Automatic annotation (TrEMBL):
Pfam families, alphabetized: Mu-transpos_C_2, rve
Domain of life (superkingdom): Bacteria
Homology family: Belongs to the transposase IS21/IS408/IS1162 family.
Chain ranges of the Integrase catalytic domain: 109-283
Protein name: Integrase core domain protein
GO biological process terms held by the UniProt record: DNA integration
SUPFAM superfamilies from the UniProt entry: Ribonuclease H-like
Gene Ontology molecular functions: nucleic acid binding
Species of provenance: Caproicibacter fermentans
Lineage: Bacteria, Bacillati, Bacillota, Clostridia, Eubacteriales
Database matches in PANTHER family: TRANSPOSASE, TRANSPOSASE RV3428C-RELATED
Length: 405
């Protein structure tokens, strides 16, 4: 329940013609609370409490607040010096609505044109396993600036390969690309600054150029410039994850996309429109060819001497003959595919528990017989049959000697 000073202020502003929404925004309360005290006349304090010892000092009090003084202890001392003999409680009640919010400085609301911008970020979420042990899991989020369509993907890592794969997946989900993508100063995007300008991570800059979007970074220590995606990170943590049950990362991501779509089929509280319907008006750029997108869904690995490939902390087996070779790996429909060139070496059910080892059936066939050498030893071939008898003079001629006749 609000104190009498606040209730008086709500009534005064309402009499001045302000709406409940405007009063709530100005005083830092909800519009419903403001409306309640405007409409419930019977809850007004008695007229005998309307005047107080502070009334005569309010003009001077406002002068102090105009100077940026809101500390009530300081204000009390200054008013007492002017003759005020009241208490501090009534002073606090009066000053409270005028006190600036802690979220200052305020920023100008910025709406991007259709197809202009998407915002992306990483968030760190938590879950407990069946043993009650707490784990961290990164989540990549992206939101289109105009329509507010959302994308979320949980990963095992926050490295550049994961970032590129998530961006490609997000663009594919949206059905196109925005003109630019805004992010914070993550090390996978920028390596530093020079004269206030970002020094781009070369590999990420090449990735952005090949796909055809322009990367943008917000000012250092100014996360409010990408407020849409900041709110989305909190939205995922507060609305999607709590109490969520899942089997593995694939299952969690399947649920996350379903949740994003359900949320985007409802009216957005800021725009007052349905994001999925507004997506058609985004005027996104056409996606690059499929082979270009698929290129960034792959990662390279070197096969270990014991014929294993490491991916997300899990070791997967391949035929031992490929030990030491560079291979390409990708997650696809819950499976890890391992290729050498165009040859599919192995396809394993993806595992999500770090430290697991998954062998390939027949992985070491022939290893002992060949002593671990995958290729044949260079040697001549002995054939069975009659050996041709030749004269010794033939060999002397070959050696440059004298013929014996």
């Amino acid at each position: 329940m609000l104190r009498s000073g606040m209730i008086h202020m709500i009534r005064e502003k309402a009499q001045g013609g302000k709406s409940a929404y405007a009063i709530g925004k100005e005083l830092g309360i909800s519009k419903n609370t403001a409306r309640k005290y405007i409409e419930r006349k019977e809850s007004s304090p008695p007229e005998t409490n309307r005047f107080s010892k502070l009334d005569a000092y309010k003009p001077q009090l406002h002068e102090f607040m105009d100077q940026g003084i809101f500390n009530c202890v300081v204000l009390l001392e200054r008013l007492q010096a002017a003759g005020y003999d009241g208490g501090i409680t009534i002073l606090k009640e009066y000053v409270h609505p005028y006190r600036p919010a802690k979220a200052l400085p305020a920023v100008r609301r910025y709406e991007t044109p259709a197809g202009k911008q998407a915002q992306m970020d990483w968030g760190i979420c938590h879950y407990t396993d069946s043993s009650g042990i707490l784990h961290k899991v990164p989540v990549f989020v992206m939101i289109l600036g105009k329509s507010r369509v959302k994308y979320a993907e949980f990963t095992s890592r926050c490295d550049l390969s994961s970032l590129e794969r998530c961006i490609v997946n997000a663009f594919s989900y949206f059905g196109g690309m925005p003109e630019n993508v805004l992010t914070d100063n993550m090390k996978t995007v920028v390596t530093g600054r020079e004269a206030g300008k970002p020094i781009w991570n070369t590999r990420f800059a090449d990735f952005a150029t090949e796909l055809g979007f322009v990367p943008k970074v917000c000012r250092i220590r100014s996360p409010q410039t990408k407020g849409k995606v900041e709110r989305l990170v909190r939205y995922v943590k507060d609305n999607f994850l709590p109490g969520r049950q899942f089997e593995n990362l694939e299952d969690l991501n399947r649920q996350a996309l379903c949740w994003c779509r359900q949320a985007d089929e409802k009216v957005h509280h800021t725009t007052g429109k349905i994001p999925m319907q507004e997506l058609e008006k985004e005027d996104l750029r056409e996606l690059p060819p499929q082979e270009t997108l698929d290129k960034y869904r792959w990662e390279t690995r070197i096969v270990t001497r014991d014929g294993m490939v490491s991916f997300d902390g899990v070791r997967y087996g391949v035929p031992w003959q490929y030990s030491g070779k560079e291979v390409r790996v990708r997650l696809c429909a819950g499976y890890l595919e391992i290729y050498c060139g165009e040859v599919l070496l192995a396809k394993h059910k993806a595992q999500y528990r770090s430290g697991n080892v998954v062998f390939l059936q027949g992985q070491y066939n022939g290893l002992a017989e060949r002593n671990g050498i995958p290729t044949s030893f260079p040697c001549a071939i002995k054939q069975n049959g009659t050996v041709e008898v030749r004269k010794l003079s033939i060999y002397d001629q070959l050696l440059g000697g004298v013929s014996h006749g």
